[in-house]
């Protein structure tokens, strides 16, 4: 499920009471002063959405999941602990399980842990636990406190939150297996983080997830001191990470896998402990200018255990078989949002002038209209320089400002992606992704809804005669993870040509490419009529990915570079 901004409720619902929170905090202040101080620190709660229809949702990546536990689900999670005297609640959520446990198991000691201080704070606003806290029947733990409850977990009856159990994967393994001497901290992020965590485990590390974008600086520093990682790992760089881990004497490995909309800020400390690996060779210069000494180009890869050829039932073939398919975002919502950001920054540059937004939008449209004439050549940078020269200089001197080239590049990238797919409608293309793709249905494109990232993607890649890849307009010099994943599934890829792709794969033997839309349409028609050739290319491509382009191989390379 996805929600639009207009569906969000601006204030917390009445069931979340500041008075109740204050009662619980008063009890904590006398029984656990350290925890009391930590739970009062600033925290980001933007991942919990309160909708105007009364629903509460939890955001994982770009998807919203129902977060309120109903009675039947609640009973199902608690049915086996009725007579337990020692209970560990793994994931507090909104506190429904905790409240019910304390009322049902009247003599049990409850130890409750959650990684997220915002969720703990919400649960303390929703129910009065003060008497249980004061009596010692309820002990609350947060984040790296999980190290304190490893022994408790060995003897306690464990109750897990049904949604958060899938979010707190690393912490659950830590609870089950203990913390080995080789510890790695991995900064929370998108889907790629799980793949990296898995690879780190293969090399003997115990991973712990650090929510660097949600926690206070104090809580982050406490977690680093307590967990004592040998290395920290970040998928994509966040400004300040180098200084943070340098101050704690911890090596930082950053694998940059996505475009960033903000500038890399110059680092204010020694960068000897920071190792940056970027999926785009052109980005090396920017990191070096920012003060990073150890920067290296490293292509993306695939988890070849998770991505492999799928066996489909007759019913599934009816769903997933396609002449052509594309899996990915239409980028339309992102383009709308980034256009607003660009124009708001232009308005600020124009000192809030009433006509600034209209003027900025008109100039922006003139640039985009020229780019639309040929999406195979990226002309926006030169046009932006000519049209918005002074504005761009203003932004680059403004700390924390968005990169105007990325903002406009993303808008044009969305237009290119929609345009290409729409023009493939006559060839029977199916597309999986967000609702933005519905705009292409009028051209014969079949929109299939969102794709599950676990097993459904494998079925799509395996069952499609041609898996088309469309690069971001301003990043035609990269190899997206999508290409590695398709090839790992034994799918035939028709990808946008790049020097980088040519450097690691044999074009025409392991992967096929195109440079213009006309070439894309021409080659698509050819391989739909020469299926055996496509299958041979796909088989050779899969062998190459399994041999040389696995995520675990990349992680091993980064760890070795860090150990030198």
Identify the notable features of this structure and list them briefly:
disordered N terminus, alpha/beta, six-stranded parallel β-sheet, Rossmann fold, single chain, 25 helices, 564 residues
Q: Could you say which overall geometry the principal axes of the C-alpha atoms support? A: globular
- Mean of all residue-level pLDDT scores: 92
Question: So, CATH architecture of the domain at 5-167?
Answer: 3-Layer(aba) Sandwich
Main CATH class of the domain at 5-167: Alpha Beta
Taking the alpha carbons of the first and last residues, their distance comes to: 46 Å
What is the number of beta strands?
A: 19
Number of helices: 25
- CATH topology name of the domain at 5-167: Rossmann fold
Largest sheet: 6 strands, parallel
Oligomer: single chain
The spatial strand order of the largest sheet comes to: 9-8-10-11-12-13
User: Which structural class do the helices and strands define?
Assistant: alpha/beta
Calculate Rg over CA atoms.
Answer: 26 Å
Structure description:
The chain has 564 residues and is α/β, with parallel strands linked by helices. Among the domains are: 5-167, 3-Layer(aba) Sandwich (Rossmann fold), CATH 3.40.50; 179-301 and 555-563, Response regulator (Rossmann fold, 3-Layer(aba) Sandwich), CATH 3.40.50.2300. The chain is built from 25 helices and 19 strands. A 6-stranded parallel beta sheet has the order 9-8-10-11-12-13, sandwiched between helices. Strands 16-15-14-17-18-19 form a 6-stranded parallel beta sheet, with helices on both faces. A 4-stranded parallel beta sheet has the order 6-5-4-7. Helix 12 links the parallel strand 10 and strand 11 (251-256). Helix 10 crosses helix 25 and helix 16 runs antiparallel to helix 17. The longest helix has 19 residues, at 404-422. The chain is globular. Mean pLDDT is 92; it is low at 1-9.
